[in-house]
């Protein structure tokens, strides 16, 4: 039996529920499933920030909110990257969103240079896109990107999706002119294209970029809402520099969702633990959640006690078990109790104040396939000596 008639007006079939011949099905609602795990974005609610809640370091990378990469070029003063708060009474708050990824501009005293850039990005694995259910080479198959955005400066911003495998392709959208200090929900439906390629691997296959500012050396005439070959000299259309040249201007996003289908469904909320576990595939720390890496504390430290009268040998290593298998072999950084990196602490007392010596860590032996990393210490640890350490493990794309 492929369908069951329920009264005169309703039929339940394999494709969905049809009422009075209207045909309300999953396909007509969103072009795909509307139940189960839908959001391809990790940490779209911005609730996980393992590295800390605020950072003013220069350069680019992952600094605060997990999975949200920050890039800059040519800036005069550092931008503050932070996990912001959604104010009560706002629309994102009413939808259950509480945290944001927030940029606060520095003083770009030399103005908007042609090579200046400030960008927020999330990198997605190729096999994630390959297996998400999107028929990405078909123009009649869609993914939908939705997010909340707020800027302290009223202007238009560009958001682009760029593929990596094969011949790189670029799809540019815009937020529309935002009202200052007002949350706006943006929804963009994006078709597949015969030129798209996603390889079966765990390297970057697609990134989504919120272009807060880009100078004219990388902007120019560019079609909106259409796939086109990626060009390093025209990544997005020319941008206004209003936000970039405004001291302490802010830009925030939250509720980021990328899903298969032609309609945006309500944001898929995950528990804190679920989001944290997904983020730990890319980054893990042994510090307590609220302690930033490099913090001078041994709260929750990993530790042991050596009974070898000579040294802790490489054939008798210290093992650290990761809570989940990481994306790839991570880069492991060790920390002593005073926050020094590349070191561990030793002492004759207990795990607390007695650990006053800082010692250089030797060779790391990493095997992400079994979820274990091991280390050999380069210095002798005497009999009945305690040692303690923290680590971070980074397997970001």
* Form type: globular
Please give the number of β-strands: 24
**How many helices in DSSP terms?**
4
Rg over CA atoms, rounded to whole Å, is 25 Å
Largest sheet geometry = 8 strands, antiparallel
Low-confidence stretches: none
Structural class: mainly beta
Q: Estimate the strand proportion.
A: 35-45%
The averaged pLDDT comes out at 87
Helicity range of the residues?
Answer: under 10%
Sequence of secondary-structure elements: EEEHEEEEHEEHEEEEEEEHEEEEEEEE
Distance between the termini: 48 Å
Brief descriptors of the model:
eight-stranded antiparallel β-sheet, seven-stranded antiparallel β-sheet, mainly beta, 397 residues, single chain
What does this structure look like?
The chain has helices spanning 26-30, 91-94, 126-130, 272-279, and strands at residues 3-6, 10-13, 16-19, 54-55, 61-62, 69-73, 80-85, 99-104, 117-125, 142-151, 158-163, 169-174, 184-191, 204-214, 227-229, 250-260, 283-285, 302-306, 318-321, 331-335, 343-347, 357-367, 372-377, 385-394. With 397 residues, the protein is mainly beta. The model has no long low-confidence stretch (mean pLDDT 87). It starts with a strand and ends with a strand. 6% of the residues lie in helices and 37% in strands. Strands 17, 18, 19, 20, 21, 22, 23 and 24 form an 8-stranded antiparallel sheet that branches. It is built from 4 helices and 24 strands.
